[in-house]
Design brief:
The complex is a heterodimer. By secondary structure, chain A is mainly α. Helix content of chain A is 64%, strand content 4%. In chain A, strands 2-3 form a two-stranded antiparallel sheet. Chain B folds into two domains: 233 residues, Rossmann fold (3-Layer(aba) Sandwich); 114 residues, abc- transporter (atp binding component) like domain (Coagulation Factor XIII, Chain A, domain 1). In chain B, 39% of the residues are buried. The structure holds adenosine-5'-triphosphate (ATP) and magnesium ion.
């Protein structure tokens, strides 16, 4: 190289750089530390994920809105117009649950296949592999915020005031959502290496999960009465998404009790009438559960990762 | 010298699944099918590499070279043992970097930079150098899926050498680019050497190992059979290959011919530059055989000066002692110590029948004004 500087000894001395160790067993804290230290890579992967998805479209993020808008329209037609569920402002109710669901579903579906899809990379470059699944969750978070923005606009356009006080709980709920989604995504991405049809299985399972989450119907109205008789309302909250979805609905839909739009206009209990404190405590508990789930997922991933080399 | 890489008792076992079903459906349908075998790809490897050393790793196909490099880079975890590293490492493992083919070269440079641990800003800083080195030109904004395999590797190599690594790990990539790019890569590696960086190099090109490495280790079926100066390791490797070939020799020729010694009439291997040298190679053969005679001359730091053979005229060996005469008419070499390898290969040049590495060491003395290896005898005058 003609323009190269004259070669000479580099000033950097390796004498006092720390020693890195490659060995069979890695502790959980080291794993988490490794992931954290590569956050810049995570960001890069998220950006490239979004780029690839919209490579050939100038409208970029716009397309991430079209599919959700279409689903929203379909559910609105089916449940509010044809089945006449009678919830006033049903769009807002539906939308506040759907943004949570969309984030969960798209993360899980993409993350499940990601390690198999990126096998070439996994076999050539060293980095914490769970970052691949996390990057799918990260991309879904970006779409989530785009949809949240639209939701806020819709809420404003309909002259509907959100529950400002409850909004304080929203970040907790959202972080739980991210942690739970990541936990499940990480584990499924590893399992899919061993059982390649996991991807199809999970798509079917997600459909079931969708209807077990009160998004297109109301938990308080349709489910709670049946469970209350038997004293087992907690069963429905074993699905961690229920609490998150209900919290989002409480914030944006606000009204716990409404008059049906369908004659004879009976009263409907749409949302639980819990106090702010109750919402806060439940969400704090869920956050704790989500954190534990994330650690467990990391530990499981660490176990499964060791055998990737003979499966990819 | 600071130890930069320390490989201690590293073994790697692979599980090889035969007829393994990779879906839940198939596993449910055939719960007991498929057997699993454990394969030892590396067996308790120990060595250390000091700061600024260039280590070559040689061995035949499947001997575990790439596996060893992958363990050092952390792509694979050793089954037992430990590897300790100091400083940051950039690696180019077997053909490329796992680029995202849907993305442009530019996006991939940023992504690959991030993989190697660089911030976006840091990649901004080296981006122009990377593009210049890779000579990709305007293709940098084309999707990588439209790159030729050479372009792909050039871009990957350009990133790896521009990230300012303390340790550079290269697995056979040097053999992919065209000749000019290869020369450029070798140049860059030499510059890294002068800068005191540590380099691990896997290549099947023995000349490259000789030219670039101070030290080499030899792997054979997962075991390390040599660790020492490049010359010695390569000699062990060649002898080993030969021994290996004897086992798989259909015509049972190998091992029947042996190069016993190389001598000169005077017994001295010192020669004045420009003078001639007569060598007498004594060969013992068990059968009658006619093959091609080959000789190689290297400088003492491993540069090939000349490789020549009997020009198509076979040497006809008879059972017993044979003598082959090698006449070096005029040796145009300058001052220095030169190593001579001699061997006998089959007439088509496919198989080495007998080989003697460093069969003789020739000392050339020269008292003219020229410097380098060879005397050109240029005359320079003003017109
Ligand atoms: N993921 C894997 N699963 C099972 N066996 C493997 C795996 N990777 C490598 N091997 C085996 O380990 C052995 C060593 O392979 P490796 O790639 O290290 O060889 P190499 O020395 O680099 O060979 P080459 O000169 O062909 O590049 C081979 O026998 C190979 O089949
Ligand atoms: Mg290899």
């Amino acid at each position: 190289m003609s323009d190269a500087p004259l070669a000479g000894q580099r000033s950097r001395s390796l004498e006092d750089t720390p020693v890195r160790v490659v060995s069979a067993r890695v502790s959980l804290t080291t794993r988490l530390g490794n992931v954290w230290s590569r956050r810049e890579l995570l960001l890069g992967l998220i950006i490239s994920d979004i780029r690839i998805k919209y490579k050939n479209s100038t409208l970029g993020l716009f397309w991430s809105m079209v599919a959700p808008a279409f689903t929203l329209g379909v559910y609105f037609l089916v449940f509010n117009v044809f089945l006449k569920n009678g919830y006033p402002n049903f769009v807002i109710y539906l939308f506040s649950g759907l943004i949570v669901w969309n984030m969960f579903q798209s993360s899980i579906i993409t993350a499940t296949g990601v390690i198999v899809d990126r096998a070439a990379l996994v076999k050539k470059v060293s980095f914490p592999r769970e970052i691949l699944a996390l990057s799918n969750v990260g991309a879904a978070v970006v779409y989530f915020f785009a949809q949240l923005l639209v939701l806020v606009i819709v809420v404003g356009a309909l002259g509907h005031a959100p529950a400002w006080k409850f909004m304080l709980i929203l970040p907790i709920s959202f972080i739980s959502l991210c942690l739970l989604t990541s936990a499940l995504g990480i584990v499924l991405s590893a399992i899919n290496v061993y059982l390649r049809d996991m991807r199809h299985l999970i798509e079917v399972f997600l459909q079931l999960w969708f209807y077990m989450t009160p998004i297109v119907y109301s938990y308080e109205h349709a489910i709670a009465p049946h469970l209350q008789i038997r004293g087992i309302t907690w069963v429905y909250f074993l699905n961690p998404l229920t609490l998150i979805v209900v919290t989002f609905q409480r914030v944006f839909y606000v009204n716990t009790i409404v008059h049906s739009t369908v004659a004879p206009h009976p009263i409907i209990d749409v949302l639980p009438t819990w106090s702010f404190d109750r919402f806060l405590i439940l969400n704090a508990l869920l956050l704790g559960v989500a954190l534990v789930a994330f650690f467990i997922a990391e530990a499981i991933f660490g176990r499964l990762e060791g055998e990737f080399e003979s499966e990819l | 010298m600071t130890t930069v890489i320390e490989v201690e008792g590293v073994s790697k076992k692979f599980k090889i699944h035969h007829e393994r079903h990779q879906s839940l459906k198939e596993r449910l349908l055939h719960p007991r099918s498929g057997t699993t075998e454990v394969f030892d790809a590396l067996q308790s490897i120990n060595f250390t590499v000091g700061e600024g050393e260039t280590l070559g790793i040689v061995g035949h196909n499947g001997s575990g070279k790439s596996t060893l490099l992958k363990c050092i880079c952390g792509v694979l975890k050793p089954t037992t043992g430990e590897i300790r590293l100091r400083g940051n490492l950039a690696a180019l493992l077997e053909l490329g970097a796992g680029f995202q083919t849907e993305l442009s070269g530019r996006d991939n440079v940023y992504l690959y930079g991030a993989m190697l641990g660089l911030s976006r800003k840091a990649v901004d800083g080296i981006f122009d150098d990377v593009v210049a080195f890779s000579e990709i030109g305007q293709f940098i904004d084309t999707q990588v899926k439209f790159y030729s395999s050479g372009m792909y590797v050039r871009l990957a190599f350009a990133v790896a050498v521009n990230v300012d690594p303390d340790i550079l790990v290269v697995d056979e990539v040097l053999s992919v680019g065209d000749e000019r790019f290869q020369a450029k890569c070798v140049d860059r590696i030499m510059r890294f050497q002068q800068e005191g960086r540590t380099i691990l190099l896997v290549t099947h090109n023995a000349d490259q190992v000789r030219a670039l490495c101070d030290r080499a280790i030899v792997l054979d079926r997962g075991e390390m059979i040599a660790d020492g100066p490049t010359r010695d390791s390569l000699r062990i490797f060649r002898e080993h290959l030969l021994a290996d070939a004897v086992e798989h020799d259909p015509s049972h020729l190998l091992g029947t011919v042996h190069i016993e010694s190389v001598s000169t009439p005077s017994g001295s291997f010192e020669v004045k530059s420009g003078a001639g040298l007569h060598l007498d190679v004594s060969v013992v053969s068990q059968t009658a055989y006619s093959g091609n005679f080959v000789m190689e001359l290297f400088t003492h730091n491993g540069l090939l000066v000349s490789r020549s053979d009997a020009q198509g005229a076979p040497v006809n060996l008879l059972p017993g002692h044979n003598h082959v005469a090698v006449d070096l008419g005029q040796i145009p070499l300058l001052d220095g110590v030169y190593n001579l390898n001699v061997g006998i290969v089959d007439p088509r040049g496919h198989n080495v029948i007998a080989w003697s590495e460093r069969a003789a060491t020739i000392q050339v003395t020269y008292d003219g004004r020229e410097g380098g290896i060879v005397e050109l005898g240029a005359t320079i005058r003003q017109q």
